[in-house]
Amino acid sequence: MPDSNRLLPNLTTRSLIPENQETPIHFLRSVLTPESYHFRRNHFPYPELPNPFLLSVRGTVLRPLELRAEQLSAWKAKSVTVALECSGNKRKKFSPEVFGEQWEDGAISQSEWTGVPLADILHLAGLQAGSQEVVFIGADRGHHPGVKGVIPFARSLSVKEALHPDVLVAYQCNGQAIPYRNGYPLRLIVPHWYGMASVKWLQDIEVIDHAFQGPFQTKDYQYYPSIHHDGGKHPVTTKHVNSIIQMPMDLSVLPVGVYVVEGIAWSGTGAVEQVELSLNQGKSWSAASLTPDPSRPYAWVRWTYTWHAEQPGQYEIWSRATDAAGHTQPLEPFWNRKGYGHHAIYRTRIQIE
C-alpha cells in the first residue's frame, strides 16, 4: 500500500513543445511556491544559452552597457515576493470558449525574486532625451503566426513603468539561482503586471524613442472585445483583482459537517482588502478572514471561512475579492477572443449528503 503521507501533487501539462504546465494550486499552502511546482509558460522551445551570458543595454542611452550575469550579484540587491500570474489563467472558464492554452486555475505561482532594480541599470546607462519605451528581449526564439522568420520573445514598458522601484532584473528565485525553466540566469520581474511582462532569459534591453511594435506587444496580449473585428482592442497590463477557492474543490461530495473554506486572493492594482463568500447565488455575502502580510504587497492573501453545512443538498460557494483601489470581481468576466484576464466571481459546486 502506498504511504498517503508521501503523496504529492503533479503539474498539469497543457502542452510539451513548447512546455506549458500548471501549478497544482489547490494543494499548495506555503507562502512561496516550490521550484518544482512553479507554473511554466512558453511560446517557444527552451533556448540554448550562450556562455558567457551577457546582458546588453543599448539604444537611446548615453552609455551602452554589456554586463555578465554574475556581475549583477555585486550590486545592491532587492527582493520582492510576487504572485506571478499568466494573463491566460482561467481561460477554460470563458463562454463562449476561446482558442489558446486551456488553463484552469493553476497558471499562477508565488516566489521571492531577488535582483537589481531595473532603474539602477537604466540610470547607469543614462536615458537620452526623448526616450519613450524600454524593450526587453529574451533568449528564447521561434516562429510567430503572420511573422516571417525566427523572432525572439520581446516586450516593452514605458520609461515611467520601467523606472518603478520594484521592477527587477532578477537573478535569484526563493534564495537560489533562477531555475532554467523559469528564466535562468536573468529574468525581468514586473510585480503588478501579468506574467508576460516578466521576460525570461533576459538578454537585451533596448531603450527606444517610439512605440514598440513587436507581435507579442501589438498582436498578442491585447484584449479583443469582438470575435469578428479588432475594434476596441486595448493592451493587457496589470493583474485584475481575483480569487480562488482552494478547498473544498469543485464537485466534491461531502457529509454534513463543519468545513473551513479556504483560498487565495490577489490584485495588481492594490492590496486585497476584502474577500466575501456567498452560498445563495449572490443574494447575500459574508466576510472571510484574511491573513495579509503588509511586508509583501505583491503577494496573494490567504483567506478562510467557516461553513456549517447542516443540510444535505447541492450548493454553490462563490468568492469575490475587493482591492484597495475599489475593484471587485464581477459576476461575469470581460469576454475577449484571446481569453485574457478572467477574473469573474469564483464558483465551486458542492454536494452535501
From TrEMBL:
Domain Moybdenum cofactor oxidoreductase dimerisation: 240-352
Database matches in Gene3D superfamilies: 2.60.40.650, Oxidoreductase, molybdopterin-binding domain (3.90.420.10)
Keywords: Metal-binding, Molybdenum, Oxidoreductase
InterPro entries: Ig_E-set, MoCF_OxRdtse_dimer, Mopterin_OxRdtase_euk, OxRdtase_Mopterin-bd_dom, OxRdtase_Mopterin-bd_sf
Xref: CDD domains: SO_family_Moco_dimer
Family annotation (SUPFAM superfamilies): E set domains, Oxidoreductase molybdopterin-binding domain
Oxidoreductase molybdopterin-binding domain boundaries: 43-215
UniProt cofactor(s): Mo-molybdopterin
Keyword Zinc-finger appears in the UniProt entry: no
Protein name, per record: Sulfite oxidase
Lineage: Bacteria, Bacillati, Bacillota, Bacilli, Bacillales
